[in-house]
Structure formats: C-alpha cells, structure tokens
Amino acid sequence: xxxxxxxxxxxxxxxxxxxxxxxxxxxxxxxxxxxxxxxxxxxxxxxxxxxxxxxxxxxxxxxxxxxxxxxxxxxxxxxxxxxxxxxxxxxxxxxxxxxxxxxxxxxxxxxxxxxxxxxxxxxxxxxxxxxxxxxxxxxxxxxxxxxxxxxxxxxxxxxxxxxxxxxxxxxxxxxxxxxxxxxxxxxxxxxxxxxxxxxxxxxxxxxxxxxxxxxxxxxxxxxxxxxxxxxxxxxxxxxxxxxxxxxxxxxxxxxxxxxxxxxxxxxxxxxxxxxxxxxxxxxxxxxxxxxxxxxxxxxxxxxxxxxxxxxxxxxxxxxxxxxxxxxxxxxxxxxxxxxxxxxxxxxxxxxxxxxxxxxxxxxxxxxxxxxxxxxxxxxxxxxxxxxxxxxxxxxxxxxxxxxxxxxxxxxxxxxxxxxxxxxxxxxxxxxxxxxxxxxxxxxxxxxxxxxxxxxxxxxxxxxxxxxxxxxxxxxxxxxxxx
Length: 482
Description:
Strand content: 5-15%
Strand order of the largest sheet: 4-10-9-8-7
Distance between the termini: 32 Å
Largest sheet: 5 strands, mixed
Number of helices: 19
Number of strands: 16
C-alpha cells in the first residue's frame, strides 16, 4: 500500500493491487434496515449478511485472499495424517517465527482453550496488557483471573502516543512481588490490543517484559492475531526499526517469546490458527489436547486447502505493501472523521476505526449500552455493520452487577483488500450525519441476556421510540436517499 500526494494536495492511500473478482452488494432502504435490526434484537452479530451493505463487524475470516492463496488451495495434499500440505505450513511458521514446535488449530480461541487448560490452575493469575473476550473467558473457566496492567496512556482516548498497547513494567513487577511467581500462569501480550482501539505494542516494551519474565521464571505468551498491523506500526513509528525489514522485525519479536499463538482468520487472511512453542516440554503438555478438541496433529481442525492458503498468506504478511493497506485505510478514515469533529480513538490503530461513544453519545449512560446503541443507529442510517466494544462485551459479576468497560467503542473493522475508498467515504459521510443528529440516539436494554459472551447472541430493545424518530429525521433530511 502506497500513500501518494495528489496534485490537489490531498494525501490518499493507493491500493497496490487490482480487483479481478467482485461480489454484488445490496443497500436496503432505511425502513428495511430498521426492520432487520429490530428482528436481530439490536445485535449486529444477529443481522443477516444479505441485509448488510458494508460489513465492518470484524476482519476475522473476511479478509480477501490473494490470487496466489487461491491457486495454492488447488495443490493441497488431502490426507488425514502425514500431509505434505501441513509440512509446508510447519516449515513456514518455523521460518518466520523461529519456534520449532507447532500445533495447528481451527482458530484462535482454540489456541486459548489449550493454553488455559494446560497452564491455568484455580487461583492462577494471568497479567496482560489488555484482555480479549474469549481469552478472558477461557482463563476464568479454568479458575484463573486476568490482571490488566496496560500503561496509563493506553486508556487515553485522544493521544499521540505511538504504542498505547504497552504494558506497565512497574505494575508487572509489583504483581509478581505481591502474589509470587508461582501464582503467575503466564504473561500474555496482545499485539495489538483489540478492545482499546487496535493499539500496538513496541518492541522495546516486549524486551522489558522478557527481562521480568527471565528474572522470575515466567512464560511469555504473545497473541499474534493482529501482528500484521503491529509490524507496520513498529516499522513506521519506531525510528530504531525503520531500516529493518518486516521479516527482521518479526523475528526480533518472536525471539522474545516462549509461545506465539494466532488466529489465521486475522493473520494470514485464511482460516485456522496455530500455536508455536519454544520448549519441547510445554509442547508435549499441550499436544494431547489437539486430537481431543481439534483433529489430528497435521490438520488441527483445518482443511488442507485452508492450510495451503494460510502458508501463502503468512508469507505475504512479510510484504510491506500487503500489511500497510489496513493501517493506511484506517488512518484515512480516522483523519477524515477528526476533520468533521467526530470523536475517535487516536492515534489511528490497527484492525479498524474506533469511535469514542462516550463523547459521541454523552447523554446515554453506560447502563444503557451506548456503544451497542450507536452500532444499531449506524446500521439504520447506513447499512454499515460495526461491532460494539464496550460494556455489552463485558460479563456481569457473580452477584449480577454490571461490569462497565474502560471505554465504550464502536469498532468499524477494515477487512484487508475488501473495500474501495469510495465505500469508506460513504461510511464517513453517514457517521458524520449521525453525529450531527446524535441527540436522537437513545439507549438499549436486554430482553434476552446469555450468561457467557452475551454480546454474541444476546437480544436488546430500544428504550423508547428513538429509532423511529431517527428514521423520520433521516427521511426529512435526505429524502429518497437510501
């Protein structure tokens, strides 16, 4: 991905690929969108994809494959055991990360399940820069507890700090001193942090964490699902890494870690996942769970076609032009929204553009799930499906009280090589219109609330008739526009 200055003076991200296969989209009228989101219980996860114009729910499993990935799928060695296809994946992971022992899985949360079952015991503590929903759920289900010790800058919504995903080293040392190293199941770093705006971690911070782990005999685990974006940020934001290749930066990161796991639905633009392990003893402790939960050791729940696509996709992740598109498209969207006064997380991170809902909807209390309400409102006025990343994504305390998120965010993910710039501009325009009419948006309340991971399939209803008023104002302002 290149960024060029047009003769007009505008800086525009320029795609370094061409589109050769297209998929038709539909943009239902606003009345149909209101009916669809009502049927879905105001949960964007429950919308039917045929009712969605721009799917910005996630970048997980919806990134566009390259021609080389699709071609590789045609030469897969279709065998239950001993497949040459798996051997190619294993060799590529060893080449990129330098960790010898490999366990394939069907996706990232399968990796989390295996890690938690093997390493987490009742009373264990897992310090991390910030949690991810399924990661935390697996740790808690196995009797452990999560301690988020992100540096203070990570929770500053508006900032120019380049690596807001970094861990607070003093807090890590204090945690070990207070509880003892035996209580620490492992130290987990997420590169970058999904729930607080896709903010990256720095190579220096990871090196400092490594020193603490070495001094206390702790295991350092890296969730590399969003590593592609993080690599680009290290390359462009860390002067010490400006002259390094993406492969060199990747190896420097990997050399600091004991275990690296990832979801290939994000990293590699394919489907599947994997765990890369340095120590043979840890590998043997985890190995038995793969046939139990995933499949045999040479496919791990993936089809061989997915494995071939993943192998090529991992190699393409080492290409600057490939990994730069997401961050540059996201930065463009963030910059354009900032120009319009729309509150967003800055600096622009990876994964997607993140709207700061606490400033967007200050009149909607957290108890009424403002980020979920804004996701519903944006779908109604645009057909754009985003994802709530706030209190709705948390889980209640054992006594039934709410856990309020540090941030209320509406995440608008940017799947790789999927959208055109005109589509991104459309989303910006509708967000701008909604911000200028933000007083119309009200809150939500649960009508069906699952106990675990409620944001996936819970159902909510609007408090009052604000959605009908939103539709009426849209029609009054934009007339017959969809």
